[in-house]
Write a structure and sequence with these properties.
Number of helices of chain A: 8
Number of domains of chain A: 1
Largest sheet of chain A: 2 strands, antiparallel
Strand order of the largest sheet of chain B: 2-1-3-4
Oligomer: heterodimer
CATH class of chain A: Mainly Alpha
CATH architecture of chain A: Alpha Horseshoe
Structural class of chain A: mainly alpha
CATH superfamily of chain A: DhaL domain
Number of helices of chain B: 5
Number of strands of chain A: 2
Distance between the termini of chain A: 9 Å
Shape of chain B: globular
Strand order of the largest sheet of chain A: 1-2
Strand content of chain A: under 5%
Helix content of chain A: 55-70%
Largest sheet of chain B: 4 strands, parallel
Radius of gyration of chain A: 16 Å
Radius of gyration of chain B: 14 Å
Strand content of chain B: 5-15%
Largest interface: A-B, 21 and 17 residues
Structural class of chain B: alpha/beta
Number of strands of chain B: 4
Order of helices and strands of chain A: EHHHHEHHHH
Shape of chain A: globular
Order of helices and strands of chain B: EHEHEHEHH
Chain lengths: 202, 136
Amino acid sequence: MLDADFFRRWMTATAASVAREAERLTALDSPIGDADHGSNLQRGFTAVTATLEKEAPDTPGAILTLAGRQLISTVGGASGPLYGTLLRRTGKALGEAAEVSAEQLAEALRTGVDAVRTLGGAAPGDKTMIDALVPAVDALGDGFAAARAAAEEGAVATTPLQARKGRASYLGERSIGHQDPGATSASLLIAALAEAVEASGE
Amino acid sequence: MSDEKLVGIVLVSHSAQVAASVAELALGLTGGGTAVPVAPAGGTEDGGLGTSAELISAAAASVDRGAGVAVLTDLGSAVLTVKTLLAEGDELPDGTRLVDAPFVEGAVAAVVTAATGADLAAVEAAAAEAYTYRKV
């Protein structure tokens, strides 16, 4: 079972990974975006870990809901409402249970990913975070390591795609040949999930 | 008319200057008279380019007179942030609506219409109709 500590570790590991990869995310966002993805997400997840420490929510659902709210208010770019919605909807779907199963988390994450698709209107193949998140959720039934691998493959597979959503879509064919920064950060979020599992020894 | 509640207008742009200038332009074109509550919510809280959920919530609260609030946005994160705030429930006043309209032309149409004491649906329709005005 996954308890509140596991979800705190997930958010902390995501913050550390985003901080480590911030320059790379911003570099990916330079040719096809506005070169702020790394710094925006770093600001957001730094605020998430600070607020989780301060308010100390004690259920998995409350942790993700609070983290999502914090991303919506601090990121400043499109990734704020998108990741904020992902975590909030996942958190709300988990309800008030003190512990949840991996299956419950997988189901809740699917609810969160569906909410992101509704919000942004992106479908698989549009060269967005959805291209990492959908395969990751599909693979979660086979474990967190499988989800991590699926998300990373999904992110890499955005390189030959033409962007159909967001600022990159204005570039048309010139968006081809660049890995999508949003899919890349989404793969960091899923990889952190696998890290949080390994740290708990499950 | 003096006690009639006016629809509030919030203008959300990635740039503080764009939001403030469009607000000024739209108010200037109403010709004075009725004071439509209009608030810009531009840029991030630290003055950079981007979108701030806090500035949007504060702007919406400041123009809410009980007749609803029409929110117009420019692009990307401005649209997504307003949609998220509306979907998450308690962040914006009751009767707040994201209006699908071109930013500058829609803002002028919305403010001019709101100045007549029109309701939220009429303000929204006027702003959306700005899409149909062709320049060539």
